[in-house]
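BUG: 3D viewer hangs when loading the predicted structure for this chain

Environment: internal workstation, default settings.
Expected: structure renders.
Actual: progress bar stalls at 90%.

Input used:
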Amino acid sequence: MDTESPSVSRIATWCLILGGILAALGTLSLMTPWVAAKVVAVFCGISLLVAGVSQVAMAVGTYTWKGFWITLVCGGLSAMAGIGMLILPEAGVEALVLFLGFLLAFEAVVKLAAAFTVREEFPWGWLLLDGIITGFLSAILLTSSPLEAGMLLGIFIGINFLSSAVAFIAAGLRLRRIDTTQ
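Structure tokens produced before the viewer hung:
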């Protein structure tokens, strides 16, 4: 075995740890979907605000630079979006539902493609199922009404975490079996 590549046992352990973390987060999200949606919206709002203020600070500190105006405008827009998400978290949740819907659609395509290309290294059936579930969640999010958005966001975050947890736990257990037979 190549000394620079991680051992199968170590990869299996990390798969199981990640699976456990995702299972715990998924369970919490399903138990309190509105809380999960608000936490995500607040985190995004804070991140946008900090990024925007940082860009504005950079622009002010480098006012003679050619990129001053673009940095200032982008920073201002980011800060305003962050403030908006913090002041109107429901609207932020609705925007996040659309973003997450598109993100999950992309993730589903990648998982489905990977299921057919990593058959040897990963339990491809679980990955295929994870891709199908992720695609289904994406379709529901992208067609939901604004009133359903917050509840769906929290529930789907939980389901996505649990689906991924099962895939990682299955991979970790399979890798452990492979490691003991070598």
